[in-house]
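Exercise 7 asks you to align residues with tokens for two separate proteins.
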Amino acid sequence: MSVSLTRSDGVTVLTLTSDPSSTCPPLCQLLGSLCYTPALCSPSRLLTLPRRGSQAVLGSLWIMSGLMHASLGAILLATYGAASYQLMDTYFPVWLGVIFVGVGLNSILTEKYPRPCVLLLSVILNLFGAAMSITAIVWYSTHFYSMCNDDYYYWRPTPSPSPENVALKERCLEVRGIARALVYGVSGVLLSLSVLGLCVGVSSAVLSCKALRPARDKAGSKALLEKPRYCNK
């Protein structure tokens, strides 16, 4: 579908020409023609990345962080009763790890196919990954605070328990303390991985933005550097 715009005195005419051989409905053809830009989606236009191989390295870091998030999140979910109930209900580390892996795969594709549309998608996904990393940092910080509250004292029965029940509760609290120590360690690693994801996302987005700079600006700066200079004696 081709779109043409004609303007006259006070009148603007928008002409749409549909493709009769296309199987898509006219509305889909209209959206495709509006979203498609040859400058962004041309398959023959490849841009030069500022540092060759950097996007692949950053993508590998994204994937490593995502896999560790998913695996350590499964460990937290296995320690039922030691982790916070928000974690048990939302499965936050698991699907956050899936997001990180997806962003990492996109960064590797950006390294292999540095086209403008791929770079633009990389910027959007890396900024989204950085925003999710900030959310994870806040989440795990509040998770540390919620684990410091011991709800055992709020549910203590009024009558005096028997010595057997007291011994059983002491053993349960001891095992729960060990499980909480494990949860503290895993949460600390997840917090560090979230900080790493924030740094990787910002770095990858900056590199993609540098590659998306107009070519004429690069050509102008190159011509300025190659311009001969004369010294007045």
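Second protein for Exercise 7:
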Amino acid sequence: MNPSFENRSPTSRRHQLFDEGRLLGFVDYHLFGNIVILTHTETNPELPGKSHGSALAERITMHCRLNGQRIMPVCSFFAHFLRTHPEHHDMLTPEGRRILEIGQASAG
């Protein structure tokens, strides 16, 4: 399997992951300047247990990194992915870091 990562139309506000023309999953987003707000992640229910969501999250995170963008996850899947992948914590907006309680000293 050699999945391709696509944003078929910049106005679609959806990044998609395909393999041989078959949709593996997608992430919906809104773009505000250099901030990408990730609102929903979905994988193909016909392909369970294949880690397509994680593969999609990795690709989107790297895409944002290469484009100088920061991430604000609203989607619970993406929030969990970022919480459990410290190598990507630097991609979060300051607000995202506070919401996910990543790298924050406790107030007190």
